[in-house]
Amino acid sequence: MAKCAVCEKSVHFGNNVSHSHRRSNKMWRSNVKSVKVKVNGGAKKMYVCTSCLKSGKVERA
Known about the structure:
The mean pLDDT is 95. The protein has one helix at 50-55; strands at 12-17, 23-28, 32-39, 42-49. Helices cover 10% and strands 46% of the residues. It is rod-shaped, with a radius of gyration of 16 Å. By secondary structure, the protein is mainly β. It has one domain (12-55). A two-stranded antiparallel ribbon has the order 1-2. The protein contains 1 helix and 4 strands.
């Protein structure tokens, strides 16, 4: 699974808990996109989460 190049956000693991309280494995995936980003004057393709894109931590190319 992809990881954000800015904040290192990736998948999280936990449990699905049913009404009867039986537990099964659960995986939450972060909203990570492949984006062309300006790096040192040039464009580079990176994985960036949408929260970093919205906050302006990254500038699109």
